Amino acid sequence: xxxxxxxxxxxxxxxxxxxxxxxxxxxxxxxxxxxxxxxxxxxxxxxxxxxxxxxxxxxxxxxxxxxxxxxxxxxxxxxxxxxxxxxxxxxxxxxxxxxxxxxxxxxxxxxxxxxxxxxxxxxxxxxxxxxxxxxxxxxxxxxxxxxxxxxxxxxxxxxxxxxxxxxxxxxxxxxxxxxxxxxxxxxxxxxxxxxxxxxxxxxxxxxxxxxxxxxxxxxxxxxxxxxxxxxxxxxxxxxxxxxxxxxxxxxxxxxxxxxxxxxxxxxxxxxxxxxxxxxxxxxxxxxxxxxxxxxxx
Length: 297
Prior knowledge:
Blueprint lengths: L10 E2 L4 E2 L1 H7 L2 H8 L24 H33 L5 H11 L6 H6 L20 H7 L1 H9 L13 H11 L2 H24 L5 H18 L24 E9 L4 E9 L5 E10 L5
Antiparallel strand pairs: 1-2, 3-4, 4-5
């Protein structure tokens, strides 16, 4: 058959059926069977152009403009929504908190925590009901652990934010996005830190059978925020070149003593340290002292 042959060369128009010999000669037996199952129109007519975007099938410039405009609007809205979500995540990563807290919260928003309902999805035979509140039909997913469990709701009410979790808050992701639209950075830091503390409290109760008072959990979350910001250990904190203190050479036989102190409220202790260097910058002595007790700042 000619290389420029088309489908009509495979049809026997006298019998209004496929030309079996030609089809079998050109295709495999499997393809031959599939082609023969394709019904052919018994009425012969000329090909016509048909515009699928209106009932009449007639093309119009106005209709084409409308279709193009709607397509562009839909594309723009999808792009805008995606960009908006990216901006929320940037807000999360820029919080002045330890990385482990932000990673935990992101995994919670993404449904990636290793909790009971996830184990059930992985075909691991466990009871998906929350073991802390034992509410009927309260499957232990991320939203239940961090938002809707009665234990978690009391912690949110005790926090400085005095948050009351609504039953309509069915997604941690959308709940966080809603808070990010109205909360200041310091308030979002409390949200993320307390969520991490709630998750840690759940693990301690489940795996170690230990419990903490609700006020203690809230206080520890606030302490983590304070310690992170005062120690400069936040992943989002970067010192400019003007803020970095550099060694300045001394004159003669004088020595330079640098000292520092810090209070760890979570451990009820403070630490003192010093370092002594000579005019050449050589180390002469260092010291470190940890003092236990109850301190405040």
